[in-house]
Automatic annotation (TrEMBL), chain A:
It comes from the Bacteria. GO terms for molecular function: transmembrane transporter activity. The keyword Cell division does not apply. The chain crosses the membrane at residues 26-57, 63-88, 109-132, 244-263. This is Energy-coupling factor transporter transmembrane protein EcfT. It comes from Rummeliibacillus stabekisii. It is a multi-pass membrane protein. Belongs to the energy-coupling factor EcfT family. Forms a stable energy-coupling factor (ECF) transporter complex composed of 2 membrane-embedded substrate-binding proteins (S component), 2 ATP-binding proteins (A component) and 2 transmembrane proteins (T component). The lineage of its organism: Bacteria, Bacillati, Bacillota, Bacilli, Bacillales. Keywords: Cell membrane, Membrane, Transmembrane, Transmembrane helix, Transport. Its main location: membrane.
Length: 267, 192
């Protein structure tokens, strides 16, 4: 189970993309999500695809990990692709077999929309693969700072996220242990009517909650003892530094946006 | 043990911060409980269960915040959603609506039980939470297919609902269970 978690997301590395400041990467990805929708013809989609491949090459991430990130929306992508192929009835007929007819326009639309999904997923996955959740949280806290004026508890949200991240491995271990302990006592979750099975969940949940609440209480006490009083005047262990390469990254997305607008108009 | 030292108005005390973080983690366990727990061949997720509990136990303010933390964690790339998924691309997935509803569920349920803390209210609130979860989540899923995938007329709202029927009985039972369980949990933790 734990191996799945480590496998899951962040892959430490020392590529250009890895070394970028999390703030730069967040700005980049947010801008990218918007400029993707500028694309509307072959030239623009090709430009997006090349741009994405360049990012992947710079991040030195193995294709396997990217494909893994694709899974959550793979169904949607396949669904979209086939819908457009089978239901769009414009342009020349490319292929005809019994009741299946594939039109040129359908194929074109299907490919365009699939490419759009593909580049979106790849770029967002590169972000989460090259940046640890902790540094994304740090970056987000800084970027969202202006929202503090609206009385939004940005610092507290970031802290809760870090705490939650810290709790994940502990609670997963705990759940695993409790499951094994209750199985050893003869608790059976695999047979009997639904009502009985739900009842069998109780001996799992009660110890899980007891130990989870105890941990939260301990943490709260520790924080209070150390005089935690919100974000004011807090110094940081992890410092964020803005380098020239971060400016380059942000500029590159601006240039890409301009190129897309140009290609959209003149090709 | 349970005094709030820093509970200035609008601020979060250390205890509140710890509990919000904790419930976000419990959501992660709930989402992936199927990897430890297969009930009779049906992999179950207990996200709805924990979202309802968050509303009932933490109340509207902290419950909403803890669900928001969970959503943000997932978007930021921690593998906290079902099947250990996470990352910004999840926002495109048709089932993202269900994750959004957890925030609403916690808020509305919290408001309901803050109004009156009776056993009936706890059970009613839990079921209302489930209804919000299903109705909003399924509608989102339908429109996700409609808008992002530009699905044609052939894909109806009814079809989206047919997909959601199989896990419904288990979720109804779990919701009622959450209502009863929350009553006991309230006695254990004292945050307000």
């Amino acid at each position: 189970m734990m191996d799945k978690l480590i496998f899951g997301r962040f892959i430490p590395g020392d590529s250009f993309v890895h070394r970028l400041d999390p703030r730069a990467k967040l700005i980049f990805v947010f801008a990218f999500i918007f400029i993707v929708f500028i694309a509307n013809n072959t030239a623009t989609y090709a430009a997006l695809l090349i741009f994405t491949i360049l990012i992947i090459l710079l991040s030195r991430i193995k294709l396997y990990f990217l494909i893994n990130g694709l899974k959550p929306i793979l169904i949607l992508m396949a669904f979209t692709f086939f819908l457009h192929i089978f239901f769009t009835k414009e342009g020349d007929i490319l292929y005809h077999w019994k009741f299946i007819t594939i039109y040129e326009e359908g194929l074109r639309q299907g490919i365009f929309i699939s490419v759009r999904f593909l580049v979106l997923v790849f770029v967002t996955t590169v972000l989460t693969l090259t940046t640890s959740p902790i540094s994304i949280t740090d970056g987000m806290e800084v970027l969202l700072n202006p929202l503090k004026k609206l009385k939004l508890p940005i610092h507290e949200l970031a802290l809760m996220m870090s705490i939650s991240l810290r709790f994940i491995p502990t609670l997963m271990d705990e759940t695993d242990k409790i499951m094994k302990a209750q199985t050893a006592r003869g608790s059976d979750l695999t047979s009997g009517p639904i009502k009985e099975r739900i009842k069998a969940v109780v001996p799992l949940l009660v110890p899980l909650f007891v130990s989870a609440f105890k941990r939260a209480e301990d943490l709260a006490t520790a924080m209070e003892v150390r005089g935690y009083r919100g974000g004011e005047g807090r110094t940081r262990y992890r410092q964020l530094k803005w380098h020239v390469r971060d400016t380059i990254a942000v500029l590159s997305i601006v240039v890409m946006g301009a190129v897309l607008i140009y290609l959209r108009k003149y090709s | 043990m349970t005094t709030n030292v820093t509970n200035v108005k609008g601020r979060f005390s250390a205890r509140e911060i710890a509990y919000c973080g904790l419930f976000a983690t419990l959501m992660m366990i709930g989402a992936n409980v199927s990897s430890f727990l297969v009930i009779g061949g049906v992999p179950i997720t207990m996200q709805t269960f924990f979202a309802i509990l968050a509303g009932l136990v933490l109340g509207s303010r902290l419950g909403t915040v803890s669900m928001l933390v969970y959503t943000l964690l997932g978007l930021v790339g921690a593998p906290v959603f079902a099947k250990f998924s996470g990352g910004f691309s999840v926002i495109l997935s048709p089932t993202f609506g269900f994750i959004v509803t957890f925030i609403m569920v916690a808020y509305i349920i919290g408001k309901m039980v803050e109004h009156s803390r009776t056993k009936t209210m706890y059970l009613a609130a839990a079921l209302v939470g489930l209804v919000i979860n299903y109705v909003f989540g399924t509608t989102w899923m339908y429109y996700a297919y409609k808008l992002w995938a530009q699905a044609p007329e052939g894909f109806t709202y009814k079809m989206a609902w047919l997909w959601m029927l199989p896990p419904l009985p288990k979720d109804i039972i779990l919701s009622i269970f959450a209502g009863l369980f929350a009553l006991r949990l309230r006695k254990v933790i004292k945050i307000d």
